[in-house]
Design a protein that fits this description.
Elements lengths: L1 H6 L12 H12 L14 E3 L6 E12 L5 E11 L3 E3 L1 H12 L2 E2 L1 H16 L3 E10 H4 L10 E8 L7 H9 L3
Parallel strand pairs: 2-5
Antiparallel strand pairs: 1-4, 2-3, 3-6, 6-7
Helix pairs in contact: 3-4
């Protein structure tokens, strides 16, 4: 960080910047706390359940950092799955999103990692994960288009025990 400050013409010894390198290091430690962690392990409260009724979690705010420019992207996640004998503690689904988002990322991979973890751990009939996010690398630099949102989705499974299928789950995820 001291070298970056010098490269942009700043004096890292001036009063306002003296502690900045250490603060930035602590910030990055927090932002990238998911590095080396297995997203599947975040879903550690799993219960037997006979239900095949959909489970949907929406409004999950997330923050991540684009691996291309190390600038944030942030938004909202919607997660849905159709159980096939197992359900997870709802907070554990949010935790999987947190683990996956706290590493240098691209939104497409983040979406897939969360869907894969839910599918791997719960082995449901089907999973849908949608992320909608604004990328500061697009808002602050380059094309400079603030407010632009990127929507990614990942679908896993066959939805054989849910007659409405993936389309029905998607419709439920967007009804409010």
């Amino acid at each position: 960080m001291t070298e970056i400050l010098a490269a942009i013409g700043e004096d890292s010894d001036r009063e306002g910047l003296q502690d900045t390198p250490a603060r930035v290091a602590r910030m990055y430690e927090s932002l990238f706390s998911g590095v080396g962690m297995n997203t599947d392990d975040a879903i550690d409260a799993v219960f037997e359940a006979e239900s095949h009724d959909p489970v949907i979690v929406s409004g999950l705010v997330f923050y991540s950092v684009c691996e291309h420019h190390l600038l944030p992207f942030y938004g909202e996640a919607r997660l849905g799955y159709v159980p096939n004998g197992k359900i997870a503690g709802i907070s554990k689904l949010a935790r999987a999103l947190e683990v996956a988002s706290h590493r240098p990322q691209v939104q497409e991979r983040l979406t897939a990692e969360v869907a894969d973890s839910i599918f791997n751990v719960l082995q449901p009939d089907g999973v849908v994960v949608e992320l909608e996010a604004e990328h500061l690398c697009m808002a602050m630099r380059g094309v400079k288009k603030p407010g632009t949102r990127v929507l990614t989705s990942a679908v896993r499974g066959e939805f054989k025990n849910y007659p409405s299928g993936q389309e029905g789950l998607l419709a439920l995820m967007h009804s409010r």
